[in-house]
Amino acid sequence: MAQKxxxxxxxxxxxxxxxxxxxxxxxxxxxxxxxFTHEENLHLTLVFIGETERxxxxxxxMDGICxxxxxxxxxRTGKFxxxxxxxxxxxxxxxxxxSSLQSRLIKGLATAGFLxxxxxxxxxxxxxxxxxxxxxxxxxxxxxxxxxxxxxxxSTNENGKLIYKEIxxxxxxxxxxx
Length: 178
Ligand code: 2AM
Known about the structure:
Layout: E1 4-11, H1 14-29, E2 33-36, E3 43-52, H2 55-63, E4 70-80, E5 86-92, H3 96-111, E6 124-132, E7 144-147, E8 149-158, E9 161-171
Antiparallel strand pairs: 1-3, 1-8, 2-6, 4-5, 4-7, 5-6, 8-9
């Protein structure tokens, strides 16, 4: 099987993506440089896995982790600083349901031999990378959305365009949760 660059993410409803797209436009206008997330690519990463041939094993792990649906709320903007420009993001309010889902996935993947992120999880939605600006507005509308599924995504680059493809979606019912 071919290597794929994979990550597990929560997709965002259109209303949230439209709101964030407006924030990205505002950020773009006040930035001297940066690469900004396309509206259709906006998502909340749960776990970045990287290059692997083992998509089937990941799907089995996901299918055993199906808690009940839960809500998330946007919190504030923030940035990870880099000398070549910052990663600018919108954060998510603390959510025990989100933390639990993320840590169960990490544990399941680690048990199956995947190397995953060991740093603490900082849930964020990336608006732009390599951004240089002194004017990143920090207020965010505290919009809430329901998470009723999460998805294994493949990150591909087609003719220089970053494309995320859905490989498998796990619907949160709370019924099949192991
Ligand atoms: P982000 O959440 O800060 O945007 C696909 O690349 C997704 O996985 C992106 O959302 C990306 O970052 C996240 N990710 C986490 N760690 C990564 C890494 N080491 N390399 C690439 N992407 C990573």
